[in-house]
Each structure stands twice: as structure tokens, then as C-alpha cells.
Amino acid sequence: MSHAYATEEQVAVAAVRRACHLTSSVFNRLVKNETLTKGDKSPVTVGDYAAQAVISSILHHAFPGDPIVGEEDASDLHAEEGRLMRDRIIELANEALTAELGLGDSATAEELLDAIDRGNHPGGRDGRMWTIDPIDGTKGFLRGEQYAVCLSLIVDAKVQLGVIGCPNLPVDPVAPERGIGCIFTAVRGHGAQQLTLNGSNPTPLVIPQTTPETLNFLESVEAAHSSHSFNDRVSSLLNITRPPTRMDSQAKYCCLARGEGGAYLRMPTGVGYREKIWDHAPGQVLVEEAGGVVTDSRGEPLDFGLGRTLGENFGVIAAGKEAHSRVLAAVQEALNETKAKV
Ligand SMILES: Nc1ncnc2c1ncn2[C@@H]1O[C@H](COP(=O)(O)O)[C@@H](O)[C@H]1OP(=O)(O)O
Ligand SMILES: [Mg+2]
Ligand SMILES: [Mg+2]
Ligand SMILES: [Mg+2]
């Protein structure tokens, strides 16, 4: 790890590992009153809050001056109704923080709620900032399927480091006996790799070439998050015969980076949802460092300097270089068909 972000990468992998252990152990013990519905109707669990508290505390310890753009905030936990959840979050976060990192005595409830709320940075074009999505794909997490613990470092609007932990993802898709649980890391200019969940056995990742027979789309499980019908149309324009692989979270970027699927296509459903930077920053650097390309449906790069969101939603196309140009052309053809109809 001899590069300008070696310390950041080491700290980020340690933080994601700790958070992955926390989320997978909390899943087996999750009970009914440990999940809330947020203002945008999406679910959030004690696992999301505790994982953000852990990652934010570890980052603050190592890089006290760095701002954080994190998905969660502690506002729903201050009220009396939030007390049971709050106590559980404090217990889980302290368990994870004191386990092996030697961060000293247990943190107080106030310190941990402050750590969650340190994720309130508005983002922007200048300087260093971290993004945290403590559980990306909370719906997948609740179903016992794919989810990801996601961390990135953005410098002057460019993603320099991405770390994604996927506790439920098979280590090797063709060798199920190797078990589940992987960490993916990428540093701009220094490649992408997959590690085991305990941070060992680095394997470099390179996206292979695909043909219409081997290409298929990676897409959301949730029909409300991206348009399944648009992807079907693009598939038929490209003569893709394999059905799409549906999977929650940035695990899709990870699978793409290690040669599964061939293209991740996420087109808006037309309800005006703005994509969040923490949902794409680590995936973007991972795919680019594995030799791929990530753009919106116009072929423009994603802009991580606009604030907490990517701005107006033009969708996301991620794929290996050659597949990307074919998919982009088909996406534009499908968009033109839609325009011609209205
Ligand atoms: N209406 C929506 N449209 C698109 N994405 C959404 C929407 N609501 C939540 N998300 C976010 O989309 C991502 C999941 O996408 P996918 O369907 O590909 O798994 C998550 O980050 C999820 O947030 P969260 O992090 O809270 O789970
Ligand atoms: Mg969420
Ligand atoms: Mg997310
Ligand atoms: Mg999340």
C-alpha cells in the first residue's frame, strides 16, 4: 500500500470491517422495535445507526479535521420514544469500538449520537470529505439478502478511495464452499482488489470483455429504485439473452468489478428521486480502477461536487469499457423511442 492514501485505506478497511461484523451480528438478533421508517418512507435499523457511529468515530480518531457526508442523522433518536433504540445503538457501537481497536473506554451516548451527527456535512466541490452509507440496501439487509457497508474519500470532488464491505456476498460466485463475506477496496491510480472479510488475501480485480451472450444487467431488486422495464428494452436492443441479476446495494458495483454481469444500469423511475453521493462514490472508483467506465445516461461522468446528491437524475451506466459504449448507445436509442412516443 505505498501510495498517497495508504493510511486512509488502512483506516477505512478497519472501519468497514468493524461495521460489517456489527451489522451481520445484529441481523440475527434484530427484533421488531429496532427498525424505524424515515421521512422518505425508507427503513432504518439500529444496525444503520450503530454502524455509522462506529465508522464516524474511527474516522474522527484518525482524521479529526475531515468532514463527513453520512446518510443517517440522530434526530429521531433524541425523543423519549427513541430511547430503547438509542440504548441498543450505544451498546452495539461500544461493543464494536472496544473489541480490537483499543479506542479506550466506552463512549457515552452523547459522544456516539454526536458521531452519527458528524455525518451532516453538506458536501461540495472543495477539499477532503468522507462519505458513509452504513448499510446500503437496508431493504436487502432486512430480507437477509445483499447489502453493503460503504465508505469513500472524495478530494476536490474526485473519489480517491472506496471501500465496500459485503457481508452476505459469496467470496467466489462459482465456489460456494468458500463461504460469504468480502471487502472491496480501490485507490485512484492504484487498482481495485477484493479482500476477505478479515482483511486478508488481496485479489486484484479486472473487468473482462463481454459479448451479447455473456453480458447481462445487474439491477436493483426494488422496482421503485430504478426502472426494470427500461432495462428490459435496452436488453432486447442489445440482443441480451440472459435475464438480469437483481441485487440490492452497491454489491452490484462489486460484482461488476469482479466480472459478474457485465453492466449495471440504473435508470430513474420518473418520480424525481435524486441519487445520493454515498450510494455511488465508492462503487465508481472501484469500477473505474477495475478498468470500467461509470457515467450517466448522457455519457457524462457523475459529479460528486454538487452537494449531498448527484443533482438532476440522469441515471447511471457502469460497465467494462467496450460494453459501456454498447450499453450507452442502446440506452440513448431507448430514450429516443420513449421521447418519440410522447
Ligand atoms: N426512491 C428511491 N429511488 C432510488 N433509490 C432509492 C430510493 N429510495 C432509497 N433509495 C436508495 O437506493 C439504494 C438502494 O438501491 P438498490 O435498489 O440498488 O439496492 C439505497 O441507497 C437506498 O437507500 P438505503 O441506503 O437507505 O438502502
Ligand atoms: Mg437508508
Ligand atoms: Mg444507500
Ligand atoms: Mg443506507
TrEMBL record:
Q: Sorted alphabetically, which keywords does the UniProt record give?
A: Hydrolase, Magnesium, Metal-binding
Report which residue ranges the record marks as coiled coil: none
The record ties this protein, via NCBIfam families, to: bisphos_HAL2 (TIGR01330)
The catalytic activity of this protein is classed by the Enzyme Commission as 3.1.3.7
Q: What class of enzyme is it?
A: hydrolase
Whether Hydrolase counts among this entry's keywords is yes
Q: Which residues bind Mg(2+)?
A: E71, D133, I135, D136, D279
| GO biological-process terms attached to the record | sulfate assimilation
Q: Where is the signal peptide?
A: none
Q: What does this protein need as cofactor? A: Mg(2+)
The protein's name in its UniProt record = 3'(2'),5'-bisphosphate nucleotidase
Give the molecular function GO annotations: 3'(2'),5'-bisphosphate nucleotidase activity; metal ion binding
Instruction: Name its species.
Output: Laccaria bicolor (strain S238N-H82 / ATCC MYA-4686)
UniProt cross-references to Gene3D superfamilies, sorted A to Z: 3.40.190.80, Fructose-1,6-Bisphosphatase, subunit A, domain 1
Q: Which domain of life is it from?
A: Eukaryota
